Amino acid sequence: MEINFECKGCQKEFDCDIGTIGINNQTMRPNFGKPIICPRCGERTIDDVLLTELGQSQMTEATMYL
Ligand SMILES: [Zn+2]
Hints:
There is one protein chain. The protein is of the alpha+beta class and about 70 residues long. The protein has one helix at about 55-65; strands at about 1-5, 15, 20-25, 30, 35-40, 40-45, 50. It has a three-stranded antiparallel β-sheet with strand order 2-1-7. A two-stranded antiparallel sheet has the order 3-4. The protein has a two-stranded antiparallel sheet with strand order 5-6. Strand 5 (about 35-40) and strand 6 (about 40-45) form a beta hairpin. The mean pLDDT is about 95. The chain binds zinc ion (ZN). Zinc ion binds near residues 12, 38, 40 and 41.
Protein backbone atom coordinates (compact mmCIF):
# COMPACT_ATOMS: atom_id res chain seq x y z
CA MET A 1 0.00 0.00 0.00
CA GLU A 2 1.46 3.34 -1.06
CA ILE A 3 0.55 6.48 0.86
CA ASN A 4 1.43 10.04 -0.05
CA PHE A 5 2.99 11.94 2.86
CA GLU A 6 4.49 15.35 3.43
CA CYS A 7 7.65 15.30 5.52
CA LYS A 8 7.73 17.89 8.33
CA GLY A 9 11.53 17.87 8.15
CA CYS A 10 12.15 18.76 4.51
CA GLN A 11 8.59 19.90 3.62
CA LYS A 12 8.60 17.62 0.58
CA GLU A 13 5.91 15.20 -0.53
CA PHE A 14 6.78 11.58 -1.13
CA ASP A 15 5.08 8.25 -1.74
CA CYS A 16 5.93 5.51 0.70
CA ASP A 17 5.04 1.83 0.67
CA ILE A 18 3.96 1.27 4.27
CA GLY A 19 2.94 -2.35 3.83
CA THR A 20 -0.34 -3.26 5.48
CA ILE A 21 -2.42 -0.78 7.44
CA GLY A 22 -4.12 -1.59 10.72
CA ILE A 23 -5.67 0.47 13.47
CA ASN A 24 -4.31 0.43 17.00
CA ASN A 25 -7.39 -0.18 19.14
CA GLN A 26 -5.89 1.64 22.12
CA THR A 27 -4.86 4.85 20.42
CA MET A 28 -7.15 4.59 17.36
CA ARG A 29 -4.17 5.63 15.28
CA PRO A 30 -3.05 3.78 12.19
CA ASN A 31 -0.42 1.07 12.44
CA PHE A 32 1.81 0.50 9.44
CA GLY A 33 3.46 -2.78 8.51
CA LYS A 34 6.62 -1.01 7.33
CA PRO A 35 8.44 2.12 8.50
CA ILE A 36 7.78 5.47 6.83
CA ILE A 37 10.92 6.38 4.90
CA CYS A 38 11.42 9.91 3.60
CA PRO A 39 13.77 9.76 0.59
CA ARG A 40 15.68 12.75 1.99
CA CYS A 41 15.50 12.34 5.78
CA GLY A 42 15.33 8.56 6.18
CA GLU A 43 13.05 6.81 8.64
CA ARG A 44 10.25 8.97 10.06
CA THR A 45 7.54 8.37 12.63
CA ILE A 46 3.89 9.17 12.01
CA ASP A 47 4.43 12.37 14.04
CA ASP A 48 7.19 13.50 11.68
CA VAL A 49 4.95 13.48 8.63
CA LEU A 50 1.64 14.92 7.48
CA LEU A 51 -0.90 13.22 5.28
CA THR A 52 -1.46 15.07 2.05
CA GLU A 53 -4.97 15.31 0.61
CA LEU A 54 -4.11 12.36 -1.62
CA GLY A 55 -2.72 10.48 1.38
CA GLN A 56 -5.91 11.06 3.33
CA SER A 57 -8.11 9.58 0.63
CA GLN A 58 -5.67 6.67 0.26
CA MET A 59 -5.89 6.05 4.03
CA THR A 60 -9.68 6.28 4.01
CA GLU A 61 -9.82 3.76 1.20
CA ALA A 62 -7.36 1.43 2.94
CA THR A 63 -9.09 1.48 6.33
CA MET A 64 -12.64 1.35 5.00
CA TYR A 65 -12.76 -2.44 4.98
CA LEU A 66 -10.89 -3.16 8.21
ZN1 LIG B 1 12.08 14.60 4.77
